[in-house]
Amino acid sequence: MSNKEVKAALKSARDAIRNKEYKEALKHCKAVLKQEKNNYNAWVFIGLAAAELEQPDQAKGAYKKAIELEPNQLLAWQGLANFYEKSSQPDVKGDLADVYEKLLQLYESGDKQKWCDVCNKLVELYRQEKKYLEVAETWQKLIQRKQEEGAEKAELHQLWKKMIQLLKDSTESQDNKTGQLLLSAFEHAVESADTVPGEDHQNLYKSFIQCLSKFPHEAARLEKACNDMMALYPTVIYPLEVLCLHFIQSGTLSEEALECFSRLLEMDESSGPGIIGSGIKFLQEKKYMEAVKSLTEGLQKTSQCPAAWHYLAEAQMKIHKHRDALQSCNQALDVLGTPEGPSLRWKNLILQVKAEALIKIGDADSAEEAIKALEQIVDASSDPVVLAIRGQAYLNKGLMDQASKISQDLLLSHPDLAESHALEGFIHYSQKDYEQAERSFLNAIERKAETAEYHLYLGLTYWFMSDETKKDKGKALTQFLKAAKFDIYLGSVFRYIGNYYRDVAADTSRARGCYKKAFELDETDEESGAAAVQLSMELGDMDTALSILNRVTGKASTVTGKWAWLCRGLYYLRTEQPFQAVADFQAAIRADPKDSNCWECLGEAYFSRGSYSTALKSFRKASELNPGLTYSICKAATVEQIQGKYAAAIATYQQILKDKEDYVPALKGLGECYLQLARSALGDYFDRK
Q: In the list 27, 208, 232, 244, which could disulfide-bond 186, CB 3.0-4.6 Å?
């Protein structure tokens, strides 16, 4: 076949393809290849015809052969691209991307429009494959080319916005380089906007700031963007809120941060971040009650801020609301999820506060949970304060050996740390080794003189050490007073001061004041509440007693506040108000159905109002729960006596007198029953009975 015949055959192949006669085209091409096996056009035409005849392997092989022969010729690359685009096979996308990359090189100095079309196709392919770095780099090449061609500012602005659109959904999985390219796109888009200020520009700025807030290491860039937007849009609250949240989350409480909190509240007094900021300021100023109030209110509006939950937990710990603090820590951990980078620091801090709260709650289950929390802290074994907390958790759980081991290690490695000596003191105190405990707590106080807990435990050590140290004003009382001075929210210390004034100084009025203060600080402190009520009654101040009881019963549910229901019931019984007494004793029983004393009191109330049958049932229930309640057994017999059931009453009285032969109420009741039986016999003329 001559050169002229080869050209004629190729022309015939081209015509056959144009007429969709693909088999005919293949014949012509094969004839050419018999003569010229490296004929570029023949291989390209075979690729095209085979693709149309659904012979993918032959088509792909033909195109690749053509490319091998002429790697810088467009035709085969275009054909291969077209073949891959039509292919339904999922594994060709990587090959297609390589083809597009080659086409970009080939179009570089030629057809600008085709270069842009291929670039768009390549970007879309990378986006589908979630290869965001490649998306960003390829799109940036497109923008760079447009800039070199002298594109208008408006066109470039749209291209930067398109780049943002392509990348903004990928912030969760971006690598640092992709993130930087996205932020750069935002900066160019913001700078190239035509209408400034304007609604579109404002929304773009918001999106930029929102994106920046997802990059923890871009703090300076975020602050600049917020400040720039505030300068352009001084009445828009969004950048100021983001800036405040940034300061809260970073733990930065500088003058600038405090000024931002104030500005935000001036613009919107109901702003969550602003209220949280004021709560943090209160915490700094040691105004803990106000801090808890503000942080709680702010978190109702802005709940997805783990740092704010941590600050709330800290404030709640300062006022000894340990269960509330535990709840706040759990909320913070839920919001954090699986933290990385700076958020990991917050997780460690939150877990430490959680462990401290659980230790203060004090039971063995809480101690176990505290140990689990401490195990999650990164590098916990190298932090002596965390180790001291772990030692307390072991102590609460009753694992004395583990607690002692930590204590000994800390005293050797950190002898100047107050927590090392305090842990040793707690261990000696729990073992009632008061002399050793005294020395340990004094060592702890020497290193941290203003820690109320150390003074409290030193005071308790003196209280239980001996009668002499208990009564010595310079010992127990002095330490309790110091603890109260350093921590005005520590309710338990006021209870112990109350115990001193009641049991040692015999100063009922002062004791009552201390118990009242203790109960105001901690309304779960039943001992202080009951003591305040009891002493108020002794002082004849029934109004104060009743106001305390009313406050507790007003807040208590049907299964809590038993002591208050019981005390108020006794008050009503004493003041001859049996109907009210019955209601309160019933509430106390709902809180604890197995308390024999409550059933005895209920029986007494029913008896006082003349409800003898229900009184009898209550007294019998009390004696069932506690067979040693002689009073209830005797009162049940008294009710039977009133009901005229003398034989039953006599049997009960006799049973009591077998155990307590000089129990006067039983003797009196038995005598009265016999007398009533005698009178009845005389009335029936049975004289000799």
A: 208
Task: For the chain, give every residue range classified as CATH 1.25.40.10.
Answer: 381-482
Whose tokens are 């009196």? That residue is: 668
**Residue environment code for 539-571, b if the CB has 16+ CB neighbours within 10 A, otherwise e:** eeeeebbbebbebbbeebeeebbbbbbbbbbbb
**Could you give the C-alpha distances from 281 to 165, 245, 305, 345, 596, in angstroms and in order?**
39, 14, 16, 21, 51
**Maximum Cα–Cα distance across the chain:** 161
- Within 268-363, residue ranges assigned H as helices are 272-284, 288-301, 306-318, 322-336, 342-361
Architecture of domain 628-688 in this structure:
Alpha Horseshoe (1.25)
Please give the CATH architecture assigned to the domain spanning 381-482: Alpha Horseshoe (1.25)
- For the chain, the first-to-last Cα distance in angstroms comes to 155
Measured between alpha carbons, how far is 293 from 273 in angstroms, rounded to an integer?
14
List average pLDDT for each run of 10 residues in the chain, which is 689 residues long.
80 90 90 88 90 89 91 90 83 84 85 88 88 89 87 89 84 73 90 84 92 86 92 92 91 86 92 94 94 96 93 96 95 83 83 95 90 88 91 93 94 94 96 95 95 96 92 90 95 95 93 94 88 89 85 70 85 88 90 91 93 93 91 92 90 91 91 88 69
Task: Judge residue 498's burial from the number of C-beta atoms within 10 Å of its C-beta, 0-12 exposed, 13-18 middle, 19 or more buried.
Answer: buried
- Residue located via tokens 């003189």: 449
Cβ atoms 596, 626 nearer than 8 A: yes
CB atoms within 10 A of CB 627: 11
